[in-house]
Amino acid sequence: MKRLPLTAIATSLLAVSSVSHAQEAEETFGGAKGADMSIEAMEPDGSAITIGRAGEYPADIARYLLASGPSAANLSPDGETIAFAWDVTGQSELWVMPAGGGVPQQITFKTGVFAPVWTPDGSSLFYSADRDGNEQPGYFALTPDGMSESEVLPAARGDFRRFGGFAEDGSFIYASTARGAGVYDIYRGTLDGETELIVESELGLYANSISPDGKYALITESVGEDADNLYLLDLATKEMTTISKPPVEDRASHTLGGFEWMPNSSGFYFSTNLGREYATLHFYDLESRSFERVFDSTRDVENLELCGPGDGGSYLYWTENDDGFDLLNGWHTVEKRAIPMPGLPEGTYQLDCEADGQLLVGVNGWQTPGELWMTDPVQGTAEKVFAANLAGLDPERLVRPQVVRYEARDGVELQGLLYLPEGAGTGEDAPPVLFSVHGGPSGQSQASFDPVAQYHVARGVAVFEPNVRGSTGLGRTYSTLDDRENRLESIADLVDLKNALAADGLIDGDRAAVAGGSYGGYAVNAVLAEYPGEFAAGVSLFGIADWITGLEVASPALKASDRIEYGDITEDRWREFYRVNSPIRKADQITVPVLYSHGVMDPRIDIYETEVMVKTLRENGVEAPFIRIPDEGHGWRKLSNQLFYFRKQAEFIEEQLGLSEGG
Asked: Distance between CA 404 and CA 414 in Å, rounded?
């Protein structure tokens, strides 16, 4: 069941639409039935936010949340213009700027766009927007000067969509639940608003890419959260050929790097961990209908980009995931040699390459919330064309996370990122700690900008971001170790990691809080119930309380993968398993305060899951404050809500950990 990492909650740039893009207010979505308004809860009230003075340290949490930079940046086909999403206005909007640098221009207003995509001729920007996070978007096309906009496909009730890419003629491929069967089917659309159903699905198919000549599409089928099957779809005959469908016990991912077609549509590059621990670069040849490994790697290959002069396929760029830090790589496909890559700030990278080989790199790292770099690796040049807004924070005061590894009780090696306050003591002088658990469960804590972690570290609280078993980025086997009956072993990992850090004298194990959003919210509920006394407090954001109800009402985006991760909830054996092994069944063992929160519009986890925990804990005499946010879905996308929520969360954590004053 896909859940957002906690850090993504604070910095997410997903879609939030205006009234003009809205659907009717009476709809239900993804199983959501509406909030129980009889439960006492705090809600954002629009009150003024104080941020303190620039240069004051420790800085107010608002400054960390206001620090921002661009997201989802893409170059125009001619390489002259960058389009990106940016939430500096309070919600995500679409901006454009010259690739050589210059003043960005905002071209959408009160829409909350998803990532912009250039049409193949560069005449328009294609984007999607939903209503307050309900994940049922409309599709729109906007000229890059912001002067002309059209609605390509209106939002429709119950229609979840996944965009798959453009062909050179401007047609596009996408997945949609419009048929009403609750699963994703494959459609082909045009910018004129015409659509055609190509393939019906029984469980859920996703469109990933379309060949430049428009003849073929690449389709995947989810196999758990960490793997998929890969198919080639002939769009004329509607025949689907299997490219790779390993047995479930040997499941593999084929989508970690995306898909990069040769300009003549003869084949494509992709990354897969089929038959190996880490995903490496492969090439699929359309004529022979076979693929082969290009070369080996000991890390996951991600973010593929193919471009270059002439036929456009000379330069291949990608990143490798090194314990949550991205490494940038280049390969000359004709000369068969490595391309030396420029040095860039540490963190995670997003790539886009167009025209004659100019490579756009979006950097999001522990010391920057977002920068844009225009590079020419072949010429050996790199220029920062967009600098992050740090909201008055001193970047030299931001803390670099360190990678730590410890053995779990059963011998499995666990990993995580540890942020320690400057001058932190050890042993009896060790700092209190906040465990920040990512979502997924197949997510990964990485070295991207984490405003909440940096705030707490500046105030003397260590932050640990564990990658317990089931996380990705640490090998194919590792990501499967929490499946089904093994779910609670990943919860035990949290306790083992806390005790190991305390034994090493790095943290005060008696002053430890645990927080998480989405699947991480479930992990908070579970660890407090399964291991009472290990953590002094919890913060659970839109997490699962009861796996039976949670899996029954999962949105179409989740159901296909949930059967591998959690078992088929329609089977008696799994219903019985979760009758015993759901947090709500053991809630009477939770004895420490827990801060709960949920968005009313959440299409992935029904707000009921949080409400039942709040009511149960309160009935048991346990402190359970509740923050309910009416205009959000699965995560806080609007800056005003982030500012309200995270101030309350900071105050709660500091009070529970015994700090002298709140946030």
From this structure: 8
